[in-house]
Write a structure and sequence with these properties.
Number of helices: 11
Oligomer: single chain
Helix content: 25-40%
Number of strands: 12
Strand content: 15-25%
Order of helices and strands: EEHHHHEHHHEEEHEHHEEHEEE
Amino acid sequence: MLILIAESKTMLPCKRHFSPADIAAHTPVFNDKAAEIMLSLYGLDATDLAKEVKISVAMASKLRSMICEFTDKSEGDRAIEAYTGVVFKAFDFGSLSAEVQRTAIDSVRIVSSLYGWLKPDDIIKAYRFDFTTRVAPGQVTLAAWWKPDLTEVLLKELEARNESEVLDLLPADAAKCFDWKRINQVAKVVKVEFAETASGGRLHTPHAGRLKTLRGSLLRQVVCEDVNCVEGLFGLESPSYRGHMKLEEDGRIIFDTANEM
């Protein structure tokens, strides 16, 4: 079972030094495309960059430094450690045993607005975009620009691994990077959803912060327990959630997150 998660907006500065051999062995598959995006923004000052990327001038100033430093491949960070958002904190890759880390590197793929497709141990540079940012050629969103390439790379990886199941832990914006109709023709795609019970028994989605924590916690449990098939998700539980015992007709599996759990 291949597991898909998305980048986070918060990242480390990615200043660790790597040898040329490390860089060569862990270069993202679409590194040249990432460089194309960064190069297209190279001549913009912070004010123009802020308008182009739809971020504050202060954040644009930091992004400008990231763009200027992008070509320095001697520094970076492993993707799984570079991202510091809520999902990644809950997953807590660094605290896993060496064996479980190897399982994560083999089974988890990170969808990135700049790099597209990342293995957890790929070496990356810091950046600040999101999937709705219109800096790709043709001024389309990065999600739309990546869709053909990421659909193909996912299909090829499934074929190479002789794999027929995908666990989709992506938020909606990142999920737009794939043509799911094509993928569903060759693989069973399971989308995880979490539901809280409100007063009166009404179900609703947890707030964004908790939802990200739940995704990261579930990812950690799946990797630690080596859950490698869809059936292994049924009834999976922790103090924070409990999985249903069946798959919904639309390919979802629901996890209840009642406060008393």
